[in-house]
Input
Amino acid sequence: MDEEHDITHRSTTRKEKQMKKNLFYRLAVLAIGAALLLGACGPAAAVAPTEAEAPEESAAEPTEAPAEPTEAPVAEEPCLIIGALYGGPITDAGYNQAMHEAVVAIKENIACVEIIEAENVPDEAGATTTMENMISQGATLIFATAFNHQYPALELAGEHPEVIFEHAGGWEMSSNFANFFGKPPDGWYMMGVAAGMMTETNKLGFVAAFPLGWTSTFINAFELGALSVNPDAQTIVAYTFSWGDRAKEADTTNSLINQGVDVITMHVDSPSTVLSTAESRGVYSIGYQNLAAQQFAPEYWISGTGFTLGGKLTWLTSTVLDGTWKPIFLRCGISDGCMAIGPFGPNVPQEVQDAVAEAQAAIDSGELVVFQGPIVDQDGTVRVADGEVLTDDLMSSVDWFVLGVIGSSK
Output
């Protein structure tokens, strides 16, 4: 699907307003003149002759009519034109809405920028056309936010060295191409703690779009968090092979619940279908991508994490404006203000809330590092040796699951 949205707001120019104003003044003068002329043609009233008196001097000096502007005022040019494209709708209460809100925050913080947005651009061909269109409109900073936008953006970066490209969640880098993202693994560990304490069947469900490196990292962090409080907890993984197929998401959610899962979460663009399906069956759920997702699970919501990247995108934009921008691999988490933990649901005990808070405090202080070894996979193979840490740059290529996860990572 390839939809482009080019919305231009135009207001009436000051010149048009002045012309209307002048016409009003001319009509008013004609009306007054006509009234005076009609009054002069009427019969005069008889008055007794009086001695002529010198006219009194007017208290006010005559003034000249204001001069009309000789030129139409020139509209102020934006300090920077930004293009932003999204893989899905910006009202999905999920990933696309979170990215849109972050981009909108730039305008709220730097009023002189102009933003061109396009939603529902999931494929590479559409992404290329959309970004080329944005560049033709003067965009010199582009935020490409979908997974499939990375390589079209990287190719265009080579063709347009004057344009800076920032991709969400990618790994490629060049002189005018960089990437940014939150640090979801820490949040997933905390949500795993909550899930491990809330489950009664010891079966947790994870609905995933694709078997990708980052997705495997999220699942592993979730299971490690659950194991930290419940050594019997298992996470069952099922894929939809789509970022936004609601029918498949509902079917996959129901399939997991039929297997005995009593806490479910997801990594798809919009969490709404998984949450509402679990809610309808009385199953607890954990959200991801955007905290607005809680509306779909009013009773069985546990908690969730969401992106809050507006501050960081504003900072990136400011570096473009002042000429200090450099390509960096930007990753920031909850403690940096790039992500947030949602409120707990009405049925979450205080001890669960306290355990999540303790995990967060340990992570923030550095006492707890989620992927610090030793860590073994499903087959018992050591993936992270004792004393070593799985670094951020390696998380995108993880193709294994930790012991306790049921399902395939490939």
Q: What stands out?
A: DSSP finds eleven helices and 15 strands in the chain. Residues 80-182 form a domain with the Rossmann fold fold (CATH 3.40.50.2300). Residues 1-69 have pLDDT under 50 and may be disordered. The longest strand covers residues 301-307.
